[in-house]
Amino acid sequence: MKKFLLILQVIFVSPYVFSQEKIDSLAREESIEYPYTVIETRPVYPGCEGTQIEKADCFNQKVMKLIVANFDMDKINKLGLPGGRYKIIAFFTIDKNGEIQDISVKAPHEEMAIETKRILEKMPKLEPGTQRDKPVKVKYSLPIHIQVEEPVKAKKKRID
Prior knowledge:
The chain is built from four helices and six strands, in the order αβααββαβββ. By secondary structure, the protein is α+β, with helices and mostly antiparallel strands. The protein has one domain (33-148): Fusion Protein Consisting Of Minor Coat Protein, Glycine Rich Linker, Tola, And A His Tag, Chain: A, Domain 2, CATH 3.30.1150. The strands form two sheets. Strands 1-6-2-3 form a four-stranded mixed beta sheet. The longest helix is centred in the N-terminal third of the chain and has 30 residues, at 2-31.
C-alpha cells in the first residue's frame, strides 16, 4: 500500500514540478535583457536596411544624428563650465515593442544628463531585437562626447 501511495504521489506531483519549472524558466526568459553587442538580431532604426552590420552602423549613425541635431549646446555653454571635451554615457533598454525604456545617463553636469534624456525620449519606435526569432529586450549604452566652449568673460568698461 505504501508503494502504491508513493507511486501516486510521484505521478501527481511530478507534472506540477515540471510545469512550475517551465513557468519559472519562461518568466526568467521574459525578464532577460540582452546586450546590444551579443543579440542575434539587433534592433533596427527606421529606414536602415542591408546586412546586420550595415543595419548596426546605420543605427549608430541615426542615433548620433538625432543627438547632434537636437542637443541644445547653447544651454550647456551657458552653464559656465570650463571649456573642453566632456563625456556623457547614456544607458537605455529597447523593449520587445521597439520602445525606448529605462533611460539613465551619467554626465559631468546634471543639465547634460537632462538634455541627453530629453533627446533619447524623442527616439522613434524601432524594430525590436530578436533572440531565437522572438522579440526581446535589448540593453544599449551610448557614449557621447561634447565640446563645451570657454565661457565668455565680461569685458570691463574703462572709465577715463
